[in-house]
Write a structure and sequence with these properties.
This protein is α/β, with parallel strands linked by helices. The chain folds into three domains: 96 residues, Helicase, Ruva Protein, domain 3, CATH 1.10.8; 30 residues, no CATH class; 125 residues, CofD-like domains (Rossmann fold, 3-Layer(aba) Sandwich), CATH 3.40.50.10680. Helix content is 40%, strand content 17%. The two termini are 24 Å apart.
Length: 299
């Protein structure tokens, strides 16, 4: 979604607030998977086919590490390693994660602002029937196989990054868009930061969400499985319930048009379209429709 918005908006008119609950240290390096995905996407380096990392990646380092008996379960491509090496160095020199991200974005020639949700470490812990797991252990090493029970975070309502606060208070802010991400793993860590939900409830600009569910299935990732394990239906209505009171509008896929009335009953306006975005053309088209929907809500 951010790729389409990046195409549709003039340079500098988009600020992407990125979840850092997935961040962790691996092989002595500071890894920020979601930040890197956004940076690679907005700079045109993202691997569309694989869904993560950089395109045209090579894996010589991981192959050598595995041959030596090292931990290669979290795959770091050769070009991707350069990002982690530089981030780790700058953090050790005393820069904040926001400052590091800004420098990386500038080096990658990203046209829009990319801001981590927080500068202090906030680590997502996944509660499962196999016990409490580090996020990457659950998501990557164990491939989301344990039964999902819930999430908690290493910090209780930590402060948002200064750039996040500035974006929420910016006079030019015209909309807040929750991209079609996993509410539990990608959005809730952001909403759990100190003052964020209050800011959303007292906003003077529309807030909308794009449903990550199409016809009872998540487009990507374990969301359908997680909802089922919580005894909830994998549907756009359920996503709307999770965001109820925080958003004014929701974009859902045409396959779920029969759910419009149930979502509207929650006080949320709905726009129906083809939300599947397999390529840049569709990303731009959906982003343009989302921005038109925002303009309607602003009237």
């Amino acid at each position: 979604m951010c790729a389409g918005l990046g195409q549709a908006l003039p340079t500098g008119n988009l600020t992407v607030i990125v979840n850092t609950g997935d961040d962790f240290e691996h092989l002595g390096l500071s890894i920020s998977p979601d930040i890197d995905s956004v940076l690679y996407t907005l700079s045109g380096r993202h691997d569309q086919q694989r869904g993560w990392g950089q395109a045209d990646e090579t894996w010589r380092c991981m192959e050598a590490l595995e041959a030596l008996g090292g931990q290669a379960w979290f795959r770091l491509g050769d070009a991707d390693l350069a990002t982690h090496l530089l981030r780790t160095q700058m953090l050790r020199e005393g820069l904040t994660l926001s400052e590091v991200t800004e420098q990386l974005a500038r080096a990658l020639q990203v046209r829009h602002r990319v801001v981590p949700m927080a500068d202090i470490p906030v680590r997502t812990r996944v509660l499962t029937d196999a016990g409490e797991l580090d996020f990457q252990d659950y998501f990557v090493r164990q491939q989301c196989k344990p039964r999902f029970v819930g999430v908690r975070w290493s910090e209780d309502a930590p402060p948002a990054s200064p750039g996040f606060y500035d974006a929420l208070k910016a006079p030019a802010l015209s909309a807040i868009i929750l991209c079609p991400s996993n509410p539990f793993l990608s959005i809730q860590p952001i909403l759990g930061l100190r003052g964020v939900k209050d800011a959303l409830r007292s906003r003077h600009t529309p807030a909308i969400a794009i449903s990550p569910i199409i016809d009872g299935k998540a487009v990507k990732g374990p969301l359908s499985k997680m909802l089922g394990e919580l005894g909830k239906q994998a549907s756009s209505v359920e996503i709307a319930r999770l965001y109820s009171g925080l958003i004014d509008g929701m974009v859902i896929d045409q396959a779920d048009a029969q759910q419009v009335a149930a979502i509207q009953a929650l006080g949320i306006r709905v726009h129906v379209t083809d939300t599947l975005m397999p390529n840049a053309v569709r990303q731009h088209a959906v982003a343009s429709e989302v921005l038109d929907f925002v303009r309607c809500l602003n009237q």
